[in-house]
Specification:
Number of strands: 0
Strand content: under 5%
Structural class: mainly alpha
Shape: globular
Largest sheet: none
Length: 71
Amino acid sequence: WLGAFLLVLAYFLLVHHDLTSRTKFYQFMNLFGSLLLGINAFYNDAFPSFVSNVIWVLIALYGIRKIFKYR
């Protein structure tokens, strides 16, 4: 549940203009949320969900890399 909460909260804060996609907080919420959901999906043999969360993790890592590279 924590992973789902983090992803939904990150999206809500983005839409509500409290965060931008260029903040570390937003990217780390996406990273940890998708990691937790991906782990859960893997252990429950929900492989389409697992793959989509792995992709989400990679996108979050790319965003984090960009933030730290261009600081």
